[in-house]
Amino acid sequence: MNNSLKFFMWLCLMLPLLSEAQQVRVLSEDLEFSGDLNSTIRKTVILQNESSQSKTYFLKNLTGNVGSSQHVKICIGDDCYDPRKDLAKIRITLAPGELMTDLYLDFEMGIVETRGSFDLNFVNLENIRESFVVEARYDVSNPNKKVDEFDYKELTLSDIYPNPSNRIAQLDYQLKNPEANAKISINSFIGNPVAEYQLDPDRNSLVINVSDFNPGVYFYTLFVDNKNIVTKKLVVKK
After folding, report:
1. Where are the domains of the chain?
2. Which of these CATH numbers, 2.60.40.2310, 3.30.750.24, 3.40.50.300, 2.40.10.340, describes 24-145?
């Protein structure tokens, strides 16, 4: 058997496997809900369709450990669903190459200090062998036992994550005063301005595309009413 025939036979065997390769990538890795008792935290789930075809996925199931006093909601834009009751309604369609940023998870922290993890398993409507998983962790704490160093007068702000980042970086926040003018300014290591983002009081997360940033160290600064509140480091890798 010559080499060309061997290669042709190998390709025929591999094509079904190649066709099952994951077409949608979850860019918001390491989703972590850390908060106080009786609070609700929202996280953005960022997806990208890396194929040249439109894809529709449905939520097959929620697996893992979610405590009896915790509750998860999946929100697509302004519509929110209970994954334990509304499986048939939770569908996501992505155009070829589309980057989706309006998919959210709302996590009610409950009334008991605890921690755990859960997975949301999505399956292609037309090919059940094609799927992706959104992985999340949670840590519920008692506010009387800690001091949140990122809890400022006008807002609560998380660290940027993932850090280092090579595609998408995210900040979670909650404006206590909707009238406050809050923004994030990003500067290079030598102080040159790179980008600036206004914090929308109607949202609670800021998604930053750092794929166009040059690799290196940057500094992001929170300004409230033009006053410098805090500056921290962001590392961008390729």
Report:
1. 24-145, 155-236
2. 2.60.40.2310
> Among 150, 153, 165, which residue's Cα sits nearest to residue 210?
165
Q: Which helix (H) or strand (E) holds 7?
A: helix 3-19
122 vs 100: CA distance, rounded Å: 15
Nearest CA to 98 out of 27, 176, 196 is that of 27
Is this model's pTM higher than 0.90 or not? Answer: no
- 157 within 8 A of 150, measured Cβ to Cβ: yes
The two structure tokens encoding residue 38: 């009786």
Domain 155-236 grouped into CATH 2.60.40.1930: yes
C-alpha R_g of the chain: 21
Query: What's the CA gap between 31 and 160, in Å, rounded?
Result: 12
Write the pLDDT tens digit of every residue in 153-170: 888 888 888 888 888 899
- State whether the Cα torsion 177-178-181-185 is positive or negative: positive
Please report the pLDDT score of residue 118 as a whole number.
93
| Dist CA 165 CA 186 (whole Å) | 14
Please tell me whether residue 9 adopts helix, strand or coil conformation.
helix
Q: Would the CATH topology of 24-145 be identical to that of 155-236?
A: yes
Edge-to-edge, what's the strand order for the sheet holding 182-188?
193-198, 182-188, 216-224, 227-236
